Amino acid sequence: MELRTHRKRGPELAPRLAMHLGPLWVVRFWNDGHSTAKFVCWQCPRLHWVQDAHTNPPAPSHISDEGEYKWQPLRADGIGDFAPDDPAFSLDLFDELVADLYQWSPDIDTEMELY
Hints:
Blueprint: H1 2-21, E1 27-31, E2 36-40, E3 47-48, E4 63-65, E5 74-76, E6 80-82, H2 95-114
Antiparallel strand pairs: 1-2, 2-3, 4-5, 5-6
């Protein structure tokens, strides 16, 4: 009985998750009743057999670092600011560089507050 309740919520939750994550993540929905897996579209509330049913836009190739008050240190076109170790971008930066970027961001905030 409990499993049936969870099965009903899956098709409702999967599109919400895909729309929240956006095109950088691939979400698949496993239908246990039919033993099938379909890709959940981030643009529409449908399930598709192919991953790029709507031909998703490519990931950004231009990333910049900017010191701006109360923002993360990295920017990408069309996405905005993000953390250097954000798993959505899979940048695979050196740990020292990630630590330096995390330190740089609060340093900018401190300087702006003094200003």
